Amino acid sequence: MSPAPWSVRARLLAILLAGLALVWGAATVATVLEADHELQEVFDARLAQVASVLALRLGDEEEAVDLEHAPVLHRYAKPLSFQVWKHGTRLMLHSADAPDEPFSATTQGFSTVRLNGREWRVFSLRGADGEHTVQVREAARDRRHLLMDIGAAVARPLLFALPLFALLVWVAVGRSLRPLARVGDEIARRDPSRLAPIEGPVPAEIASLVGRLNALFARLSSAMEGERRFTADAAHELRTPLAALRAQLQVAQGATDGGERDRAIARALAAGERATHVVEQLLVLARLEHDAWREAAAAFDLHRVAADALAERAAQAHARRIELSLEGEPATMAAGHAGLAAIALGNLVDNAIRYSPPDTAVTIALSREPGRAVAAVRDQGPGIAPGRREEALRRFARLGDGEADGSGLGLSIVARIAELHGADLRLEDGPGGRGLAASLAFPAA
Known about the structure:
The protein is an alpha+beta fold.
């Protein structure tokens, strides 16, 4: 997993500042739009008010009223232009800057006109006598300048607030992420063999992460302990057949009699076969520790798997004068991995042949249970006492009297395959209370 180009702190800072700028900008735009609406209302009201005042002076006959030179008492107090028309044709009263033409063709109410490249807001009021019309105008540019001043006043604090807010977020996020940095530093300083859980208070946001890390450490510790124990047990189990192989080869090398040499070589071959069997079983166990087999899991014919397991061991059973048989329905379908099921049944048949006396029978009986497809391997050997059956499933456990030479891994492999498949492994007395009946109940397909 490659590191992200941005740190969590930088990402949070960018998101918060961008969000603040976006929200503040949207609020500024909304404020300016609302202010524009209200300002238009205020300015229009002023135009209407001035027009009403002028309408009260309709009896005056002055040619002009100079408002351009009136004292400016406020920076937003702009001079207004006005006209008073009689019958719409005679200009009776006007401001000094007013032209000789009407401001607007509208004789009642508001209108917006453009004259000489400038935009004007005009209010026209017809007098009560119906003869006079008052028109008052104001430059739209003056209104826009005021609106721009309001927008600048609203947006200006953002320029000063953003750096301060960035500093605040930087400090706050840094302090908030300090426990995460502490956990990272603790993991970085750890020795690979130290798998103790991470201790100490952590924020709720990373408590789940730390809990999963601790669970991972626990699984790794258990796996490493199992590997160490497995390696030690394997070394112990291989030491005996390898030592016997070496000793017999030395005997054969120093033997002067041909018969003695042949017997030593035969015993060396037997020791080599035992070592090979142990290695093969260890490889099977190592393979079962990985989950790659799940990709090939599917419905399989348990009857065919059982028949193949018996066929592969027919010569071995014939050499020991043991009869092999298969009972049950021909199409017994189970769910799982056919190859692993064959290994499990093969180990059970191997054990049954190894521990059965000559002139007896080993049978695989297939049956169905609710939601299960069952294969039971039955022999007529010494069996396993009920109190020792759990012990028999452990690795390198050998319960015989020494006459049968096994690795002690067969039943543990069967138990592991059953666990991976969600199958049931049952060790029970054989038919008539004689021998052992080892049953594997796979999920039915």
